[in-house]
Design goal:
With about 230 residues, the protein is an all-alpha fold. It is about 75% helix and about 0% strand. The radius of gyration is 19 Å and the shape is globular.
Length: about 230
């Protein structure tokens, strides 16, 4: 993406990139230390760790499917986005005061519930506010900021542990800062002045027959590499 491509992006797209940056900093700064926190401080087993992450990610994946449908029917994206980032932001500090892996399970599910609620409506909003010719640039900007946040998060954790006397539990409270920054930025986003027509509250057709061959091929490849 060159400078002119960035300047021509809708402000909503730019803001959503910053939102994802802060949210990923908050998430990824904790991701490397959570297994250590669970096994050494809470005394959880490795199987417990698998249960926590498997359950949390499964719920996120399911909600991504339905949250997009709900946002279409309500013709609203922003409420899902704000609630999603809020759940992710406020759940992290409570992990730091957890005393059992069951509590962490609940909080990780809450965190991933937020991700499931926000992801599809956020991507739909990006598609709503840009022309088809700009979608590549828009999603490229968003994904690059998302990836940048994922890189900054672990580096921030390493820096804090190396240069300060912070304990593992304290890092979960520190993650609240970028988490709340993402929520604050999300609240400044404006949806289209002329929202999309409300979608009729009819039963959603989940049949794969309606998908194009190219989309089916993409989904198969995506599923394989996700596993």
């Amino acid at each position: 993406m060159n400078d002119s491509d960035f300047k021509n992006l809708d402000p909503t797209v730019k803001k959503l990139g910053v939102v994802s940056f802060f949210a990923d900093v908050a998430s990824e700064m904790l991701y490397p230390i959570t297994p250590i926190f669970l096994t050494t401080i809470l005394g959880a087993s490795m199987s417990s760790l698998g249960i926590i992450e498997g359950t949390a990610e499964a719920i996120a994946s399911l909600l991504k499917t339905y949250s997009g449908v709900w946002s279409d029917r309500l013709s609203k994206r922003k409420p899902f986005i704000i609630l999603g980032y809020l759940l992710g932001g406020i759940s992290k500090p409570f992990i730091g005061i957890s005393t059992s892996w069951f509590q962490v399970l609940f909080l990780r599910v809450l965190d991933r519930t937020g991700k499931g609620l926000r992801s599809s409506p956020r991507d739909a909003l990006i598609a709503d506010v840009v022309s088809p010719s700009q979608r590549g640039s828009a999603f490229g900007w968003h994904r690059s900021m998302d990836t940048l946040g994922a890189a900054v998060g672990p580096l921030l954790t390493i820096t804090l542990l190396s240069l300060t006397t912070l304990q593992l539990r304290s890092l979960y409270f520190f993650a609240l800062i970028p988490g709340l920054l993402s929520v604050a930025m999300a609240m400044t986003i404006k949806e289209q002045k002329h929202p999309l027509p409300r979608v009729a509250n009819t039963k959603t057709n989940w049949s794969l027959k309606q998908l194009t061959p190219s989309l089916k091929t993409y989904l198969i490849a995506w599923t394989i590499f996700s596993v």
